[in-house]
Structure formats: C-alpha cells, structure tokens
Amino acid sequence: MTYAVTDDNELIVDYSAIADAPTPVNLTQHAYFNLAGHDAGDILDHELTLDASHFLPVDAALIPVGAMRSVEGTPFDFKTPHRIGERINQSDAQLSIGHGYDHNFVIDRSNEGELALAARVHEPRSGRVLEIFTTEPGIQFYSGSGVGSDRAGKGAHVYARNSALALEPQHFPDSPNRPDFPSTLLRPGEEYRSRTVYRFSTTPASS
C-alpha cells in the first residue's frame, strides 16, 4: 500500500499485490469520518450521495444473499443527496439487520476498473465535503451503529453510536462463493492493483 497527499487536498491510497498461488484478494480500509469534528456529535445530519443504483441485501450475518436489489423506492436510494438519519429508522428489514446501514452498494460505472466517483459526503454546518473516487466495483457504507465505547478517545471524548461513518471501496463481500459477483481471484503472474482517492473541499457553511 502506498499513501500520498497531494496539493489538491487529496489522500490517494494505492494497493498492489501478487500471489504465488491462486488467492482471493479484496483489499480496503475501514477509515472512519465525521466531517463535523471528532467531538461534534453524530453523523446523522451528514448528507450522503452514492452513485449506485443497486445494493446487496444481506442475511443476519451481514453476508450478501440473493441478487443485487434496486435502491429505487427504498431507504437505500442515495442517488441524490439525503441526510443519513433521514430514513435510518424506517421500518425496513435490511435496516433492521444492519441496525442502520452496513451494506455494499454497486457503483454505477461505464468503464470497469477506471477511477470513478463513488460517494460524496457533505456536512452542512461546517461546509466540509468528502468525495471518494475508486477503481473498485462496490463501496460498503457503514453508518456506525456498532460504534460505542466507555473508553475515552482523542481529547477525552467518548464516542457513541453513529458518531462516525465508514465508506469502504471494495469488491463485493463473499465474492469467492458467488460466481455471479466480480471475481477476486488473483492468479500467479497477475498483479492486483486498486486505487482510492479521498478528496476534501468546502462549501459555504449553513447558519
């Protein structure tokens, strides 16, 4: 893995791997974000946009089950910006399983393997914006339902449920057992390459 910080307010993460035997490879990272600040409450007012027309429904173990499902008409439709907390408590079987959002979204892309915008997060009070570009076919959105500890963190702050979110570019979970998913198999003589770009910017803050 190679990390690079650019003059354009970007953090670029490049992954590469080789294998001496056929090996499933699906690399990502579980970075947490709260664009309001580490001690500024939850992320439910963050506005999220996902360039994804489908997501993967999961079973009780959060493993994808069945075919990908359209987001249209569901709380999983982030094709246009929505507050994360806007529909998180709706009566929906998938939200109940994940205690919120903990699902892989299928990125809409025209060219496989090219860098494309997958997600945009806007925090209206500060005006901070995070855009995530990736070469991966999916992105896991986790709304932080399991975040919580009685241990103090940075600045003696104690983190609670939904105090941060994660957006993880990746191949689809359980791909080795799902031939209908994009393959994660890396064979000898091949090289795995993946890139994720986190781009930060600001808009005028709301009052």
Description:
The chain has 1 helix and 15 strands. The chain is mainly beta and 207 residues long. The chain has a single domain, classed as Beta-galactosidase, Chain A, domain 5 (Distorted Sandwich), CATH 2.70.98.10. Strand 10 and strand 11 form a beta hairpin. The protein is globular and about 55 Å long.
Percentage of residues in strands: 35-45%
CATH class assignment: Mainly Beta
Largest sheet: 7 strands, antiparallel
Q: What characteristic shape results from the CA principal axes?
A: globular
Q: Indicate the mean pLDDT.
A: 94
DSSP E strands, number:
15
- Radius of gyration from CA coordinates: 17 Å
SSE run = EEEEEEEEHEEEEEEE
Q: Number of domains in the coordinates?
A: 1
**Helical coverage, percent range:** under 10%
CATH architecture: Distorted Sandwich
